[in-house]
Design a protein that fits this description.
Strand order of the largest sheet: 1-2-5-4-3-6-12-8-13-11
Helix content: 25-40%
Structural class: alpha/beta
Shape: globular
Number of strands: 14
Amino acid sequence: MQGPARCSFFKALLWALALAALLQLLYLSLLSGLHGRQQRSRYSELFGGRRGEAPGRPSEQQKEQLKRALASGGRLDASGQYRIYTDMLGPPERAGRAPDLVLATHTSLSNLHQLQELVGRWQGPVSVALFAPGPAEVRLATLMLYALGALCGPVRQLVRAHLVCHSGDLAAFPELEDRAEFARLKACGDVFAKLARAGAGRRNYALGANASYPNNLLRNVARGAATGHYTLVLDVDMLPSEGLREAFLALAATLGAEGPPGVFVVPAFEIRHTRRLPGAKAELLQLYQVGEIRPFYEELCPRCQAPTNYSRWLNLPPGSSLNIAYTVEWRDPWEPFYISANSVPPYDERFKQYGFNRISQACELHVAGYSFSVLNNAFLVHKGFKVPSEFHAQKDAENQRNKVLFRQFKQELKLKYPGSMHRC
């Protein structure tokens, strides 16, 4: 082949290669666009077409966060029995200030609907650990968390959600076949109403013969999202007094870091009828006087809350600011609810189901030298009176098993804190 002809051949070859590369890029671009449209169509079919809900739908970033959380496969807890998916919805849109006060709570699907009122009352960062005890529950839990993120602005703005399941279960992204289940979910209230219906008549601890509710693991998972902040760990069916978060942060700003470590006890009550939940101490006192409110666990275990000294607290007049009212010594079997730095010892995750799960942690705080200061105007209210007839059938047996574990736990504390003068 002569020179000019060879040159023309190579030019044609180069043009052909360039054209092929261009066509391949165009094909990949079209394929990527088609895949994106398919994914958007899939999302749209699953959670789309909501009248008046455009601002409430999740961003692509939030959708990708859920996919990443699930694709990670979660992590196993220290025992290897449970799988933990953290930040299923990503970090909240409203980043909390530092330091902040994070409300940490836990639940199964049966009580997840309680989150709506809790978030509405708290108006600040919330971390919730959700337990799903089987494959069907894991799938439903994933779907409901996605629905909450898609349709509930307050949840998306304030809540960090974590899923805990057995180690053999894997969560997966909602599929199109799930869309029929959510065809009628048009707003946030629809999601919580569906959760309320699903949880009717069910209890956290009544999960079946082969499932135990890992309450202390869940508490630790929820607390884990509050690094560098204060935390208030409570049950999902309790409400704090109004303005507690802001009032405590104002108090914390006036307290020095010197002195022994301590926690701030928030007195807990239970109310007969939930249609009128008090927001301020003055209102709580009125309800207490007519018998609508009583100390938490008054019927089931008065000693479990007695060191709070309710009579003293109730006789303190309501004030305009939050302060430390008095300090009390821990004694067995006190299990107070309290605000603390997130550096306090974790809950012992061996305690599951009913009994000694919170007492064990309060006992360790005492042995470790923590003080217990009761706040004057802050309080918690449990929805409904605690009565024996409403507990699950295995309550007493579980309590006895955990009682044996608690004896072992107290012996372990002697080795963990050899220089402590305190014992449980």
